[in-house]
Amino acid sequence: MAEHTHTPVKPPFWNNPEIRAIAFQVIALAATVAFGYYLFENTQTNLRRLGIASGFDFLSSSSGFGILQSLIPYSETSSYGRVFWVALLNTLLVSALGIVLATLLGFIIGIARLSKNWLIAKLALAYIETFRNIPLLLQIFFWYFAVLRAVPSPRQSLSLGDVVFLNIRGLYLPAPQLQPGFGWVLTAFGLALVLVAILAHWSRRRQMETGQTFPALSASLALLLGLPLATFWLAGSPLVWQVPELRGFNFQGGLVIIPEMASLLLSLSIYTAAFIAEIVRAGIQAVSHGQTEASYSLGLNPTLTLRLIILPQALRVIIPPLTNQYLNLIKNSSLAAAIGYPDLVAAFAGTVLNQTGQAIECIAITMAVYLTISLLISLLMNAYNRRVALVER
Amino acid sequence: MNGRTLTTTLVTAVLLAAASGARAGTTLNTIKERGYVKCGVSDGLPGFSYTDEKGKFSGIDVDVCRAVAAAVFGDSTKVKFTPLTAKERFTALQTGEIDVLSRNSTWTSSRDSALGLNFTGVTYYDGQGFLVNKKLGVKSAKALDGATVCVQAGTTTELNLSDYFRAGKMKYTPITYDKSDESAKALEAGRCDVLTSDQSQLYAQRIKLAKPGDYIVLPEVISKEPLGPMVRHGDDDWFDIVKWTLFVMVDAEELGINSKNVEDMKKSTNPDVKRILGVEGDKGKDFGLANDWMAVVIKQVGNYGEIFDRNVGKGSDLQIERGLNALWSQGGLQYAPPVR
Amino acid sequence: MTDAHPSRPDLPPASAIGAFGWLRRNLFSSPFNIALTGLASYLLYLTVPHVLHWALLDATWSGDSREACQANGGACWVFIRANFEQFMYGFYPEAQRWRVDTALLLLILGAAPLFVRTVPNKFKVRWGLGLLLVYPLVAFVLFKGDLFGLRAVDTSRWGGLLLTLVIAGVGMTAALPLGILLALGRRSQMPAIQTLCMTFIELWRGVPLITVLFMSSVMLPLFLPVGVNFDKLLRALIGVTLFQSAYMAEVVRGGLQAIPKGQFEAAAALGLGYWKTMALIVLPQALKLVIPGIVNTFIALFKDTSLVLIIGLFDLMNTVHNATTNPAWLGFSTEGYVFAAAVYWLFCFGMSRYSQNLEKRLHTGHKR
């Protein structure tokens, strides 16, 4: 022991944690780079050996096939690049509608789950336990192949007042067609928005100063609806409805919601709503009961308590997992490929890949798009979270 | 051995250990070592490639695979079938997951070049047509303006369809599915007015419908669809074997050799017959195969006529006429170079 | 009741207790609630009898073809019965199906001790780990064959529930350890390791599983050297495992973050190295905390296995879907999907219930 105190033995360098850490990282990095290079080399060799074309030139050549649903002008002579945008917009459309529907349904079911009414609470529970334990793909198939295939053919369409038609080709709605004077209505709506903002500001200040409340919500609603409606009437109703009618094989004109989109939308929102409901329930339960009691003792009624005390606190817990569900919904919308809805995966990573044979480019672009959407939404939500986060004093 | 090669070797070694089979040398050698031919077929098309409840494959495309196995091993059962979707088929062949792709694929210039693949011949001369419900009252494809059309995604059919409607200044709504079964189901449910596909497929799909009699195939044929097996670029010997397996079956029909009389025919005095049955000359060596390989193919699988009749023709549910697929000597297009 | 003790004002009034009281409290407490109850009851009245009639009362249970179902209006469960074997085994050769059954039996026997409460925990852990290592090998040999005189059964013939369980099982057993490693990497002090793990995790979490499966089916082959190629099933398994491991990593990370710093310091004070600290001190606590999350990931994985349909593997989902297109059984898609849904539901619901149970049992005083 005595020798040790005099001449401390330096531990060998490979036992030095810092050196070890550096060595370990260098090895890991080197292995990753080597592996990446190895894959790259293989791919290059394979492409060359098989004579498969590569690069992104194909995006500008013309596609030559039709697409079922397109939000922007598209024809067979459009380029593959155009197909990409059509497909991306289809994905975004179904995702956006799905998010709105799933949120509405999810909040209703989540609150119902906490209802004091036994029957309602149990029904909500049954809903949640049923739908979140069945694969989404199965639900999509069920709606598409079992439900929407049982709808009659175009010539035997179900109709609602001869304006709305439902048949196996889709749900046909009258399409609004704007006439010249409609600009005034839009202007009136914009004006109403500005007025509402001013009103909200004024009523808040008045409440702060005098304690008097002003029914700002109902006044705003009246403004938002009343002003444009009045202008609409004054401008001579500058809007006509184009009613779909049966011509030849199909209904022509009007708006159509194709069954592919309908079943995708239904199953996406029903499935995601089950998860959102659980998130909402957990969020509301996370607000301690003391808050409710304190609010009641301050004299707030149940509605105000929910609006001013519970929801703002619950939302703080709800938002992060809710964002995750939104991301899941967007990613799940790719299951469209299974029923032929022309989304990004079906039309671009599917058809275009197949027509051009350029698997790597198509899959890479598709993955990059989903990654970008994910990262964008995460960034937005992080910013929002920072704003609503509890400020500790 | 420098660092990069070392890493590459190590990683390769690991991957090789996990992989199901490594290839050394030519395709033929690999197949012989492995003990069976890996053949890509369709995932469900009666008459061409179809699996019954027991998982047994049958069809023209399947018989081509069997014939290749018979040529290589003298045993038509030494083949493993991989059902592929339209989307997967070319990658599977390109990457060596299969040795031959026999999956009703149309011979086109881009597939023959840019994809790095070679067509070995034509097993079935086809053309794209339309299948409609009789109730629709349509007699000609020219009356299909505004129709909703079901079509398989990512096929030449999809492109022909758009060309045809564009040329006739007609409008249509395409509904695309990955599987032909789903298109047929959609037609039956009324999701679309018309199903378009190669005519042979239309007949095959029709017998799968609940009421086949309610549907008719329209007279128009809007494209040329020569269907045939494919192999990878880069191995001409293997290309030759697959190509000549097809030719032999056609030649056999022309010479009147079939699976039943092949033994008797060996006694024939016709030099053409003698050559093809391996009685005279050594036609096996040129291919790296057994000398009587052609005879074995005919014996175990049959000649082209037998295969056609058994799977899609008179001997099958499909009842398709020989038409373009009759021998050249009988007014068709099937013509094979001589074995010499 | 009220008459029985008129002189006892300390007892609640009869209207507040018993069945009547329960109804009043839980269903008819306010006009709004009465309206809700009425509405819900009406909805149930509209749907439940229909469903009951369809699924049970008017359903056909016996027979062997679609003709047997024509007479009754309800569900045709004959369809399920006729195809049941296929739904369970896919195209697995009939003569060899005993091998699948044996594997299942072995799994049940092997896992049984884990569910017996009297077995000591220490033994359970060792037994469980051993099972995790040995069972997959045994099952693989049984399924695949080509060894010990068993006939080889190609993976393309595996199907039905068997294939679903194989994918889910492999995914779970492989994704958990990989996920733990990734989570440790992401929490590591070494910036390079941390970045690598983070990139990996975020990359997989940012894309849909279907594109991963596409990638594994059409792109993976191009990444491999000339002549090397994987089985279709193996490729799907690689895709599923990598994808799930990223999700698993995030779950485990949550557990790691919840472990107080004192635990690490105490371990360091005892002279434990990194791996020992993690294996003996941190992970046992962290994993216990995230059991619900792990099981949720398992459930998600189990449901996600249905996506292999898109790359043409015949799992339960695809087998059922395929059977509904069989010309001999057209028009019974609802029955098929309901059956498949019931199977998936049983597994998922069972797993979630088991995890809740486990969570309760494992609470060793962490909760106040």
Detailed description of the structure:
The complex is a heterotrimer of chains A (393), B (340) and C (368). With 393 residues, chain A is of the alpha+beta class. Chain A folds into 3 domains: 2-50; 80-169 and 258-388, MetI-like fold (Orthogonal Bundle); 175-242. Chain A contains 12 helices and 8 strands. Chain A has a 4-stranded antiparallel sheet. In chain A, helix 3 (80-113) packs antiparallel against helix 11 (344-356). Chain B is α/β, with parallel strands linked by helices. Chain B has 13 helices and 13 strands. Chain B has helices at residues 3-18, 27-34, 60-73, 89-94, 109-113, 156-167, 180-189, 199-206, 236-255, 262-265, 271-276, 293-300, 304-311; strands at residues 37-42, 50-51, 57-58, 79-84, 100-106, 117-119, 124-126, 128-133, 147-152, 172-177, 194-198, 215-217, 225-232. In chain B, helix 3 (60-73) packs across helix 9. Chain C is mainly alpha-helical. Helices cover 69% and strands 0% of the residues of chain C. Chain C is globular and about 70 Å long. Chains A and C meet through helix 2, helix 4, helix 5, helix 11 and helix 12 of A and helix 2, helix 8, helix 9, helix 13 and helix 14 of C.
Number of domains of chain B: 2
Main sheet makeup of chain B = 6 strands, mixed
Q: Name the helix and strand elements of chain A from N-terminus to C-terminus, one letter apiece.
A: HHHHHEEEEHHEEEEHHHHH
CATH superfamily of the largest domain in chain B: Periplasmic binding protein-like II
Order of helices and strands of chain B: HHEEEHEHEHEEEEHEHEHEEHHHHH
How would you classify the helix and strand content of chain A by structural class? Answer: alpha+beta
Shape of chain B: globular
- At the fourth CATH level, what is the homologous superfamily of the largest domain in chain A? MetI-like
Which class of the largest domain in chain B in CATH terms?
A: Alpha Beta
Oligomer: heterotrimer
Residue stretches of chain A low in confidence (pLDDT < 50, at least 5 long) are: none
Number of helices of chain B: 13
What is the CA-CA span between the terminal residues of chain A?
A: 55 Å
| Helix content percent band of chain B | 25-40%
What's the average pLDDT of chain A?
83
Give the DSSP E fraction of chain A (strand runs of 2 or more residues).
Answer: 5-15%
Helix content of chain A: 55-70%
Please report the number of helical segments of chain A. Answer: 12
Largest sheet of chain A, if any? 4 strands, antiparallel
From the alpha carbons, calculate the radius of gyration of chain B and give it in angstroms.
22 Å
Distance from N terminus to C terminus of chain B (CA atoms, Å) equals 51 Å
